[in-house]
Amino acid sequence: MVDIATRVYNHTWKIDPIVRSVLDTDFYKLLMAQTIFRRHRDVRVTFGIQNRTTSVRIADLVDEGELREQLDHVRSLSLTRGESTWLRGNTFYGVRQMFSPDFIAWLEGFRFPDYHLEKHDGQYVLTFEGPWIETTMWEIPALAILNELRSKGVTRSKGKFELQVLYARAMTRVWEKIQALKQLPNLSVADFGTRRRHGFLWQDWCVQAMTEGLGPSFSGTSNCLIALRREVEAVGTNAHELPMVYTALAAEDDEAAMARAPYDVLADWMQDYGGNLRIILPDTYGTTQFLANAPDWVASWTGIRIDSKEPIEGGEEAIRWWEARGQNPREKLAIFSDGLDIEPIIRIHRRFNGRMRLGFGWGTLLTNDFRGFVADDRLDPISIVCKVVSVNGHPAVKLSDNPTKAIGPPEEVERYRRVFHTERQVAQPVLV
């Protein structure tokens, strides 16, 4: 097992890249990329970094030269022969050759496009502009780099023994969480922690701990590279960027097309994927209105991911919706993924176990829970995202079930609220 403390202590090694592979990304990113490749490869999309935890001035903690060095290293990466073979020949969600030969051929020739970086008021303004199929690939590595450089900035002055104690405490915390989860019957939990991890080595350790500690209750990791190396399942479906881009494209036509756009996403997805990949993510413009206006065929899908809505409320709403559409909730899968930790997982499990199939995507508080271990909470995780900013020059919008997470120019946000009849929402704290 890697001595993480020693590796962190030796942070001055010239060659110790944060992102080591094109596959050091989440599985859903590759699934979405294939859908984009087939239909929208010429659409131009800008992604941008947003640090929601504005009290943390990342630009004061992360050296710009180091950041550029890591970003430039990512631009030198290409898919290796072994990685290509894994994608071509492995079985994902019970399906062999999920990725078509023409998409794999594109991915083998893919190189990350350029980026734009500047500083403003203690934050980095980092954007990626170009063809959607290329800029989408930056989301995960950019977030992983910023989070790990921040971690290194905080731990840079610590000695080797201090670091060993720090990681021993963090390992103990993770293991105690795993032991608590072992008590839950019919548990299915996956690692969703790539985007905001403390570091690659730490995420890899967490996956090994989950594999040993939970056995078959550990359903896999979203990280493709770790899935390949540790021989565990690669898991994930899709994200908000699909309806955000589809709706921004429709906004060029009329508001009726905008209202249909989130369902157009599902129609395309259904052509590409089946089974447990048919999971709806309804909260981009509000879950309640999405479910109320969804075509009948959507209810036949395998399940739902409950993200920004309060989880108990979201779960009960999903059950009522399935029942109203003549579906049996016990046969449906509900994946919970927003700000999870032990207490919320246990609470959700107690409420819904036996009423529907449950899955949990455990993210930041699995792979980056160093809360309280460093003075002034300087190593506590932060809420940082990389989202679609514009599509073919038009602003992109996300409303969410939590208005605190809304993205887009204020006038466009109000327009989208009108188009999607988004009900008055109650702001909730943004969990990491």
Roughly how many Å apart are the termini? 28 Å
Q: Structural class given helices, strands, pairing?
A: alpha/beta
Strand count, sense and barrel status of the largest sheet are: 6 strands, parallel
Number of helices: 18
Unreliable spans: none
Rg from C-alpha positions? 21 Å
Helix coverage percent of residues?
40-55%
Q: Quick check: average pLDDT?
A: 95
Strand content: 5-15%
Describe the structure.
The protein has 432 residues and is of the alpha/beta class. It is 44% helix and 14% strand. The chain has helices at 4-9, 27-39, 58-61, 64-75, 81-89, 101-109, 132-135, 139-155, 160-181, 200-214, 224-230, 241-250, 255-272, 287-293, 311-324, 342-352, 364-367, 410-419, and strands spanning 44-51, 91-92, 95-96, 116-120, 123-131, 189-191, 218-221, 279-280, 303-306, 333-336, 357-362, 384-391, 394-395. Strand 12 (384-391) and strand 13 form a beta hairpin. Helix 9 (160-181) packs parallel to helix 10 (200-214) and helix 14 packs parallel to helix 15. It is globular. The mean pLDDT is 95.
Write a compact overview of the structure shown.
With 432 residues, the protein is α/β, with parallel strands linked by helices. Helices cover 44% and strands 14% of the residues.
Descriptive terms for the model:
alpha/beta; 432 residues
Please outline the helices and strands:
Blueprint: H1 4-9, H2 27-39, E1 44-51, H3 58-61, H4 64-75, H5 81-89, E2 91-92, E3 95-96, H6 101-109, E4 116-120, E5 123-131, H7 132-135, H8 139-155, H9 160-181, E6 189-191, H10 200-214, E7 218-221, H11 224-230, H12 241-250, H13 255-272, E8 279-280, H14 287-293, E9 303-306, H15 311-324, E10 333-336, H16 342-352, E11 357-362, H17 364-367, E12 384-391, E13 394-395, H18 410-419
Parallel strand pairs: 6-7, 6-11, 8-9, 9-10, 10-11
Antiparallel strand pairs: 1-5, 1-12, 2-3, 4-5, 12-13
Helix pairs in contact: 4-8, 9-10, 12-13, 14-15
